[in-house]
Amino acid sequence: MRRNLICGAQIDIVGNYIEWGRDKMIIYNSRKEYMFSVNRVDKLYIVYGYPTKYEAKFKEVALISNLKLDFIHRRFCHVNIPLIQSMSKNNSVKGIEHLSKSKVENCVNCKIAKSTRSSLKKNYTYRRTTRRCLDRVHCDLWGPAPVTSIGGNRYFLSIIDDYSRKVDVYIIKSKDQVFDCFKKYLVKVERELNSKIKCMRSDNGLEFCHKEFENFLTKLGIKMERTSLYTPEQNGIAEKFNRTAMDGVRAMLHDSGLQPKFWAEALLTFVHAKNRCEHKLTSPLTPIEIWSGFKPSVRHFRIFGSLAYVHIPKIKRNKLQPRAKLGILVGYSLRTKGYRVFLPNENKVIETIHVYVDESKNGVRSLFGKNKQYEYAKFNLNSVNEFEDLDDSNRTKLLDKLSPLDIEDWTRKEYTKTRSKQMYVYYCPPSSKTKLKSLNEVRKYCKENKMTFEPEKFNFKATTKYSDKNKNSENDSKSEGSNSDEIYETLGYECYNSELPKTFEDTQRSKDKEKWDFAMREELNMMKTRKVWELVDPPANKTIIGSKWVYNIKHDEENKPKKYKARLVALGFKQKAGIDYGETFSPVVNFSIVKLMFIVLVSLLGWNHVQLDVKSAYLYGKLNEKVYLKQPPGFIVKDAESKVYLLHKALYGLHQSGRSWNCELDHILKNLKFDKLLWSNCLYKNKDVILVIYVDDIIVFGKTLNGINKTVALIKSKLDLTELGPVKYLLGVNFEMNKDLFMHQKTYIEKLMIKFKELPKSNVNLPIKLGSKLPEKIEEKDIVENELMMKFPYRTLIGCLSFLADRTRPDISFSVNLMSQFSNGYTFEHWKIVVDIMNYVFKTKDYKINLSNVKNSNLTCYTDANWGCNLTNRRSTSGYLIKFGDVIFTWRSSKQKCIALSSMESEFVALCESAKESVWFSRVINELKIFSNKIIPKILCDNQAAIYFCKNNCENFKTKHIDIRYKFIRELIEDKLIELCFIESKKNLSDFLTKPLLTNKFRDVFKIVFNTTYTTVGPYVGDNRSCRKGNEISE
Hints:
It is built from 28 helices and 39 strands. By secondary structure, it is an alpha+beta fold.
């Protein structure tokens, strides 16, 4: 208050109301809300209040007397209203001496949070058996909480003094912290009261019943009291407090609208208020008064979750910045005098006394627009939260303010497609044409636009059934949509609408809980059948590694969900080299061999083929080392919680698992009379059957179906297999068999079109233009990414394109190899070119390689080099292309590792690389012995000087410096392992692997590679945005 004297007329002038009577004056504001009351002393009314610096704070620091009872009920963290009335009547605390006697309406939050069954006990008498503080303390552990608190905690330990009923609560992360917390409590209370704890009562939890805890209590002479088995009511004081506390926490969270992660803050606030409330056995005294001997004050109580204005010190602001920042009240300071306030903009909780709390305003509603309705009564607290995993040290990081999400402004539409006859749903944000068709897309949109993500407000289940009337919506969606939208409708909705669970707890909250449970039980039954482990006592001085569940949904070649899979994976990163594992190398087949086998065996010789999948293949591998594993999450054996598994077989995640499985498979196949090829570790032959192995995928090629069936039966007698029929989809590549056999990656490209559907679109007809000037490579530390580049990372795009270029797309091989050289030093101009290449792939996704266009067994290799094409370091580019018959099955474009001093030298280096590859393929084919004649590769080069140098051992001042390792090609020619011939540059098919070509030259190459006519069809368009020309993205 600013003045010593207050004029009554002035109070009336400003619009306030005054009531006189019985030596008392009561002041109300303009809304007839109580402000304060004063008593008459002689001829003056004396105000017994507290002076404050700001007049606006006067109402907050005034006495609570004559306030409404429901207002005080909320300040006291929703404790029982009769208890508050009793405290006011008995004058148990300072600050609530005069309460309104008006009727109190039932508190909705309490009814929701504290609902119970009807009691069956009648006339129960409560009594206190102790005579002084610390005669007995009651302990209990609550948890784990369904969500982690903002400090990363999941449990709390409650310790209650029997005589005073004062409660101390410790928020902890794990059960093993209970003992340390009790020791802290023991030191604190014995110093406060100068007395000793005589007895401790708890349940039979292992956190209380272990030797270290028992020896500690015995040494101090503290009596241990435990409950009988399955009789928790004997520890009823602690159990009842836990229930009462969580009832209060639920009510406070529901009232405030705060997220579930604030349960620990609400609990500490509730305990602070509970210790200042009467108890049935301590009335009219409060626990704090019995404990300390002083009557507590509650004048500092404020409503949990109220809007708070935190003062900013002068040091942290300039003269033009505001003096306060907004926050939400979440409790009272633990170590200082003040309040705890959560700052959403900074995502941290601070303690300060310089704060103004506006109890008339809810913090969540004021800052975010609406209260979030969580099911606190059931503790279904599984909402998505970006900051859930942050601990105290990380909460100091500043984050952008999230704006509220108002679902009423969003447009929800249901549509259908005649082909599928299913209803689909999408949401459109306000003032945007973006269509969001899954929670994944909504989450990304909210994150990009800095909005709060509230999944409970979105419903992607159609509310109407398909009918002919829905055809209009289908047409509307087609006209509004685009190519990528259509792809998403047909195959993306089922695959990407639901998220894969990351932990066991996520599966228990998933709508597909039964499917995931079945998948996990199936995995454990598989391990039991194969005798993967045995349960043993944990050994001393041995590394015991953990495990986790990895979940996935398998899809068929059309991207439809086929099977829910749960894999138990060991945390192998905790293994120690030389102790827990030795050698780890495990071979896999080169995919070029897979393509060659299809060309030679299926297209040329007409063999049959079938694909097999080994179930849980790694579980067959035998371990030579002793590896101990913790019991898997969610499946801990009862009465054997402390035991661990000793592994006899390999488990996914171990360093040596791949090698163990490969050795076991090699042993099995050799016992079945299969011979492994000398020139390929993953090819096996047995009479008229050839096996190709890629980890747990086995492709069986046979002359006859009868031979294949016998082979499958033999392997089935040793391994648990799944027969998938003829190969249709293998390692990201589609094999399509109509009249001819085609190979393509349309399925994979369509996945990329969904993943990168917001990528800028461009009208490009070539992967890279002739004459394109690339900026120089920069240092990695100087890379600057704008928002668009961060959304679609350079290396991610290069990785996807490299996979395509290696398997089925030789037309982009040169451009991808060129741009990959800038992966650790790119600019925006480089990124634009990579985007153009991706758009070119989207445009040509339907192109296929015809594997049936083979009429002979000639192995031909085309090789070429572009001398000194790199203007920065003057390195040359090599390229080769190998055909079997007329079908191209392998190719490569690469930067040479040395600097060539002439075009002859660069061509010679390229010849050596192509010769190594060609000889290897010929040796593999010859070892299979499927042709009567020996296959000798024919290498075609358009540089006569290089050919002459290969065939003649000439040395002069121009050739002496050439590395000896390249001269092995002469030995290959002398041994007649290769045939080296000249070809005109115009006819050299590998020319496009070393340099960009003009459109007409690229068209000629395109006809040979894909056996189809190259057309400059319209640009790929993923949405309604206009397309740009190639390399015209604005920064």
